[in-house]
Prior knowledge:
Layout: E1 8-13, H1 19-31, E2 35-40, H2 42-52, H3 59-67, E3 73-78, E4 95-101, H4 103-111, H5 117-127, E5 132-136, H6 143-154, E6 158-159, H7 173-187
Parallel strand pairs: 1-2, 1-4, 2-3, 4-5, 5-6
Helix pairs in contact: 1-7, 4-5, 4-6
Amino acid sequence: xxxxxxxxxxxxxxxxxxxxxxxxxxxxxxxxxxxxxxxxxxxxxxxxxxxxxxxxxxxxxxxxxxxxxxxxxxxxxxxxxxxxxxxxxxxxxxxxxxxxxxxxxxxxxxxxxxxxxxxxxxxxxxxxxxxxxxxxxxxxxxxxxxxxxxxxxxxxxxxxxxxxxxxxxxxxxxxxxxxxxxxxxxxxxxxxxxxxxxxxxxxxx
Length: 205
Protein backbone atom coordinates (compact mmCIF):
# COMPACT_ATOMS: atom_id res chain seq x y z
CA UNK A 1 0.00 0.00 0.00
CA UNK A 2 1.16 3.56 -0.72
CA UNK A 3 2.35 5.78 2.13
CA UNK A 4 0.65 9.09 2.88
CA UNK A 5 2.94 12.01 2.06
CA UNK A 6 3.01 13.82 5.40
CA UNK A 7 1.57 11.28 7.87
CA UNK A 8 -0.73 14.02 9.13
CA UNK A 9 -4.40 13.22 9.58
CA UNK A 10 -7.28 15.09 11.16
CA UNK A 11 -9.65 13.08 13.36
CA UNK A 12 -13.02 14.45 14.44
CA UNK A 13 -15.21 13.02 17.19
CA UNK A 14 -18.81 14.26 17.34
CA UNK A 15 -21.76 13.71 19.64
CA UNK A 16 -22.93 10.53 17.93
CA UNK A 17 -22.81 7.39 20.05
CA UNK A 18 -19.68 5.33 19.48
CA UNK A 19 -16.84 7.57 20.62
CA UNK A 20 -14.82 4.39 21.25
CA UNK A 21 -14.39 4.14 17.46
CA UNK A 22 -12.60 7.47 17.35
CA UNK A 23 -10.50 6.62 20.38
CA UNK A 24 -9.25 3.37 18.85
CA UNK A 25 -8.55 5.14 15.56
CA UNK A 26 -6.41 7.73 17.32
CA UNK A 27 -4.54 5.08 19.29
CA UNK A 28 -3.82 3.14 16.11
CA UNK A 29 -2.62 6.17 14.15
CA UNK A 30 -0.36 7.33 16.97
CA UNK A 31 1.07 3.81 17.18
CA UNK A 32 1.87 4.11 13.47
CA UNK A 33 3.76 7.35 14.14
CA UNK A 34 1.20 9.70 12.60
CA UNK A 35 0.59 13.28 13.63
CA UNK A 36 -3.08 13.37 14.60
CA UNK A 37 -4.91 16.70 14.69
CA UNK A 38 -7.91 16.12 16.94
CA UNK A 39 -11.17 18.08 16.97
CA UNK A 40 -13.95 17.10 19.38
CA UNK A 41 -17.34 18.80 19.30
CA UNK A 42 -18.93 19.93 22.56
CA UNK A 43 -21.46 17.14 22.20
CA UNK A 44 -18.56 14.77 21.52
CA UNK A 45 -17.05 15.67 24.89
CA UNK A 46 -20.41 14.93 26.50
CA UNK A 47 -20.50 11.48 24.90
CA UNK A 48 -16.92 10.76 26.02
CA UNK A 49 -18.06 11.54 29.57
CA UNK A 50 -21.23 9.44 29.35
CA UNK A 51 -19.93 6.43 27.35
CA UNK A 52 -16.28 6.29 28.38
CA UNK A 53 -16.47 7.77 31.89
CA UNK A 54 -13.85 10.37 31.01
CA UNK A 55 -13.35 13.29 33.39
CA UNK A 56 -13.65 16.07 30.84
CA UNK A 57 -13.25 19.00 33.24
CA UNK A 58 -9.61 19.25 32.07
CA UNK A 59 -9.84 18.43 28.39
CA UNK A 60 -6.17 18.69 27.45
CA UNK A 61 -5.19 16.85 30.62
CA UNK A 62 -7.44 13.88 29.91
CA UNK A 63 -6.11 13.65 26.33
CA UNK A 64 -2.55 13.51 27.65
CA UNK A 65 -3.61 10.83 30.14
CA UNK A 66 -5.32 8.68 27.50
CA UNK A 67 -2.95 9.12 24.54
CA UNK A 68 0.42 10.19 25.97
CA UNK A 69 3.28 7.81 25.31
CA UNK A 70 1.69 6.08 22.31
CA UNK A 71 4.14 7.47 19.76
CA UNK A 72 3.34 9.88 16.98
CA UNK A 73 2.08 13.33 17.92
CA UNK A 74 -1.37 14.45 19.09
CA UNK A 75 -2.38 18.06 18.43
CA UNK A 76 -5.69 19.09 20.01
CA UNK A 77 -7.74 21.94 18.53
CA UNK A 78 -10.85 23.32 20.29
CA UNK A 79 -13.84 23.12 17.96
CA UNK A 80 -14.30 26.89 18.23
CA UNK A 81 -10.75 27.65 16.99
CA UNK A 82 -11.62 28.55 13.43
CA UNK A 83 -8.09 29.96 12.98
CA UNK A 84 -6.31 26.65 13.63
CA UNK A 85 -3.73 25.41 11.13
CA UNK A 86 -6.05 22.70 9.79
CA UNK A 87 -8.65 25.33 8.84
CA UNK A 88 -6.43 26.36 5.91
CA UNK A 89 -5.85 24.46 2.71
CA UNK A 90 -2.22 25.58 2.83
CA UNK A 91 -1.65 23.20 5.76
CA UNK A 92 -0.79 19.88 4.15
CA UNK A 93 -2.89 17.37 6.02
CA UNK A 94 -3.30 14.05 4.21
CA UNK A 95 -7.01 13.75 4.99
CA UNK A 96 -9.71 13.80 7.64
CA UNK A 97 -11.83 11.16 9.36
CA UNK A 98 -14.88 11.99 11.46
CA UNK A 99 -15.52 8.90 13.56
CA UNK A 100 -18.25 8.77 14.71
CA UNK A 101 -20.07 11.38 12.65
CA UNK A 102 -23.39 12.71 13.90
CA UNK A 103 -26.19 13.56 11.49
CA UNK A 104 -25.91 17.20 12.60
CA UNK A 105 -22.24 17.39 11.62
CA UNK A 106 -22.92 15.52 8.39
CA UNK A 107 -25.68 18.01 7.54
CA UNK A 108 -23.39 20.96 8.30
CA UNK A 109 -20.75 19.57 5.95
CA UNK A 110 -23.30 18.86 3.23
CA UNK A 111 -24.55 22.45 3.39
CA UNK A 112 -21.03 23.94 3.44
CA UNK A 113 -21.77 26.00 6.53
CA UNK A 114 -18.19 25.92 7.93
CA UNK A 115 -19.52 27.32 11.22
CA UNK A 116 -16.92 25.63 13.43
CA UNK A 117 -13.51 24.00 13.06
CA UNK A 118 -14.96 20.53 12.44
CA UNK A 119 -17.10 21.51 9.46
CA UNK A 120 -14.55 24.06 8.21
CA UNK A 121 -11.77 21.47 8.11
CA UNK A 122 -14.06 19.02 6.33
CA UNK A 123 -14.82 21.75 3.79
CA UNK A 124 -11.07 22.29 3.30
CA UNK A 125 -10.59 18.59 2.56
CA UNK A 126 -13.28 18.74 -0.09
CA UNK A 127 -12.05 21.91 -1.77
CA UNK A 128 -8.47 20.63 -1.82
CA UNK A 129 -9.57 17.21 -3.13
CA UNK A 130 -8.12 15.40 -0.12
CA UNK A 131 -9.66 12.30 1.45
CA UNK A 132 -12.63 12.95 3.72
CA UNK A 133 -14.12 9.92 5.46
CA UNK A 134 -17.30 10.07 7.51
CA UNK A 135 -18.39 7.24 9.81
CA UNK A 136 -22.10 7.86 10.37
CA UNK A 137 -23.59 6.28 13.47
CA UNK A 138 -27.36 6.64 13.54
CA UNK A 139 -30.37 4.37 13.17
CA UNK A 140 -32.94 4.45 11.76
CA UNK A 141 -32.11 6.88 8.96
CA UNK A 142 -34.69 9.20 7.43
CA UNK A 143 -34.69 10.73 3.97
CA UNK A 144 -32.77 13.89 4.90
CA UNK A 145 -29.94 11.79 6.39
CA UNK A 146 -29.79 9.69 3.25
CA UNK A 147 -29.98 12.67 0.90
CA UNK A 148 -27.11 14.38 2.71
CA UNK A 149 -25.00 11.23 2.49
CA UNK A 150 -25.75 10.89 -1.21
CA UNK A 151 -24.89 14.54 -1.83
CA UNK A 152 -21.52 14.16 -0.11
CA UNK A 153 -20.82 10.81 -1.75
CA UNK A 154 -21.29 12.40 -5.17
CA UNK A 155 -18.67 14.98 -4.15
CA UNK A 156 -16.17 12.24 -3.39
CA UNK A 157 -16.64 11.94 0.37
CA UNK A 158 -16.23 8.34 1.54
CA UNK A 159 -19.03 6.98 3.74
CA UNK A 160 -18.03 4.11 6.04
CA UNK A 161 -21.06 3.49 8.26
CA UNK A 162 -20.50 1.92 11.66
CA UNK A 163 -21.57 -1.51 10.42
CA UNK A 164 -19.19 -4.24 11.62
CA UNK A 165 -18.91 -7.51 9.72
CA UNK A 166 -19.04 -11.00 11.20
CA UNK A 167 -17.30 -13.17 8.60
CA UNK A 168 -14.08 -13.00 10.62
CA UNK A 169 -15.99 -14.51 13.59
CA UNK A 170 -15.38 -11.75 16.13
CA UNK A 171 -15.32 -12.99 19.71
CA UNK A 172 -15.23 -9.65 21.55
CA UNK A 173 -16.67 -6.16 21.20
CA UNK A 174 -13.09 -4.93 20.74
CA UNK A 175 -12.77 -7.00 17.56
CA UNK A 176 -15.95 -5.40 16.19
CA UNK A 177 -14.55 -1.94 16.93
CA UNK A 178 -11.17 -2.67 15.36
CA UNK A 179 -12.85 -4.01 12.21
CA UNK A 180 -14.36 -0.57 11.61
CA UNK A 181 -11.08 1.17 12.38
CA UNK A 182 -9.37 -1.17 9.93
CA UNK A 183 -11.88 -0.37 7.19
CA UNK A 184 -11.09 3.32 7.62
CA UNK A 185 -7.36 2.62 7.36
CA UNK A 186 -7.96 0.47 4.28
CA UNK A 187 -9.73 3.41 2.62
CA UNK A 188 -6.63 5.53 3.26
CA UNK A 189 -4.29 2.75 2.07
CA UNK A 190 -2.65 2.51 5.49
CA UNK A 191 -1.25 -0.92 6.31
CA UNK A 192 -2.56 -2.61 9.44
CA UNK A 193 -3.37 -5.99 10.96
CA UNK A 194 -6.46 -5.06 12.94
CA UNK A 195 -8.68 -7.85 11.62
CA UNK A 196 -8.49 -11.10 9.70
CA UNK A 197 -9.33 -10.52 6.05
CA UNK A 198 -11.61 -12.74 4.01
CA UNK A 199 -9.65 -15.73 2.73
CA UNK A 200 -6.78 -15.28 5.19
CA UNK A 201 -6.09 -17.70 8.05
CA UNK A 202 -7.27 -16.67 11.49
CA UNK A 203 -4.21 -15.31 13.34
CA UNK A 204 -5.79 -15.50 16.77
CA UNK A 205 -4.26 -17.97 19.17
